[in-house]
Amino acid sequence: MARPTKQQRRTRRRNKKNRQEKAKMRRLQKILEIAHTCPALDDFIASLDTKEITRLIGIFCCPPEQYLCTERILREHGHPGYLCLKAEIQGDRTPCGDTKVRAWTSAVKRECETDDKFKIVIGVVRQPPTGDSDSDTIDRWSEVISAVHELGHAEDMEKGINFRVGQAFDIANAEYYAHQFACRLLQERNMVMGLVTYLSIAVCPMVRCESQSTSDAAKRFMESEEYRNYLRMIPKGLRRQFAMPDAPSTEENHKDH
């Protein structure tokens, strides 16, 4: 069989590159199509398997003005008589620039009980619609990934890994744990757009956060092998934006297996 000529080899390479580019565009188009199919927050919360987090009272949605109003939210949802427990925090809590805080996790207990009987509450701020389709879609996805992140903190509290009621805890370790939990759950559910949103909002920008603890957690997570595995879910055309700032692109340094 005759060997292909130089021109034939060049044509084959060009055709292969064209096929690869078309495949990449199809993947990107799929991302854009599913971007506007974000699950409703209430439906998503209802679908979560939280049986193993036995202390969890619930995940409650609230308007922006009720942010951190845990006791009030519990009363309004039929759980009166709870008090929030205070925690001693190790690490810098400097605000992260103009990042929107959309959710929180609280440890609570009934007035007549000891701290070791604590329960867990997650609150998620529901942003009012703006009328702009793209902006509202980002808000909906942000609410979903915020709930997932806080569920990671809830599991942490349940297991007493980084959060221990009555003891100091380290923000950096707690945030790192929540990043791992959130991305693992999104991967298990094959929620590509959820993962893209999570990395875009909750991880990559935090590398430059004014809070040293939050920044350290994001950097450590982005340098982990788990992070590189999560990136493989994302079409190659989008991976460059999730590389560590001022570092070589993950797309260039890590090939798919």
Describe this structure in words.
The two termini are 33 Å apart. The longest helix has 30 residues, at 6-35. α4 (133-159) packs across α5 (171-188) and α4 crosses α6. The model is unreliable at 247-257 (pLDDT under 50). 30% of the residues are buried. It is built from ten helices and six strands. The protein is α/β, with parallel strands linked by helices and 257 residues long. It is 49% helix and 11% strand. Strands 1-5-4-2 form a four-stranded mixed sheet. The chain has one domain (37-253). β4 and β5 form a beta hairpin.
Describe how the helices and strands are arranged:
Elements (H helix, E strand, L loop, with lengths): L5 H30 L5 H7 L8 E7 L7 H7 L5 E3 L4 E2 L12 E8 L8 E7 L7 H27 L9 E2 H18 L3 H12 L8 H11 L2 H7 L4 H4 L10 H4 L4
Parallel strand pairs: 1-5, 3-6
Antiparallel strand pairs: 2-4, 4-5
Helix pairs in contact: 4-5, 4-6, 5-6, 5-7
What are its keywords?
257 residues; elongated; disordered C terminus
Summarize the structure.
49% of the residues lie in helices and 11% in strands. It has helices at 6-35, 41-47, 70-76, 133-159, 171-188, 192-203, 212-222, 225-231, 236-239, 250-253; strands at 56-62, 82-84, 89-90, 103-110, 119-125, 169-170. β4 (103-110) and β5 (119-125) form a beta hairpin.
Give the mean pLDDT.
Answer: 82
State the strand order across the main sheet. 1-5-4-2
- Report the sheet-strand fraction: 5-15%
Low-confidence stretches: 247-257
Radius of gyration: 22 Å
Number of domains: 1
Tell me the major beta sheet: 4 strands, mixed
**Based on helices, strands and strand pairing, what is the structural class?**
alpha/beta
Instruction: Label the overall shape.
Output: elongated
Q: What's the count of strands?
A: 6
Order of helices and strands: HHEHEEEEHEHHHHHH
N→C terminal distance: 33 Å
Number of helices: 10
Helix content: 40-55%
